[in-house]
Amino acid sequence: MNSTSITLTQAAAERVAHFLTDQGGVGLRLGVRRTGCSGWAYEVGLAEAVEDGDTVFEDRGIRIVVDADALPLVAGTRIDFARQGLNRQFEFENPNVTDECGCGESFTVTAG
To answer: Which domains does the chain have, with CATH numbers?
Structure first.
């Protein structure tokens, strides 16, 4: 895989596969939206289709669909799925992040 690829841990791949089996779709859609004190937050959902301008990665048998606007902000991200007590959530290891807010809900990417 190259440095711009989006990758999944085994736990994340299993979680996405479960949702795809239950709800359908062509893969995982990873995006971002402006929010929070640091500027960006991740959006994760099921991709119903691959749209014009989308980039598609495949890891562990799962297609990961990213739109053109989000790709520069998430390139190289590794997605994990963590269970801590009753909490279950996707976690992101993004090499582009230069700062995160204290609550962990948003992040900053400095263009360079």
So the answer is: 7-109 (2.60.300.12)
The predicted pLDDT at position 56 comes to: 97
| Separation between Cα atoms, residue 71 and residue 54, nearest integer Å | 9
Those residues whose C-beta lies under 8 Å from the C-beta of residue 89, and which sit 6 or more positions away, are 81, 82
Burial 61-72 (b: 16+ CB within 10 A, else e): ebbbbbbeebbe
| pLDDT category of residue 97 using cuts at 50, 70 and 90 | confident
* Residue 34: CB atoms within 10 Å: 8
Phi, psi of 39 (to 5 degrees): 115, -40
CA 92 to chain centre: 7
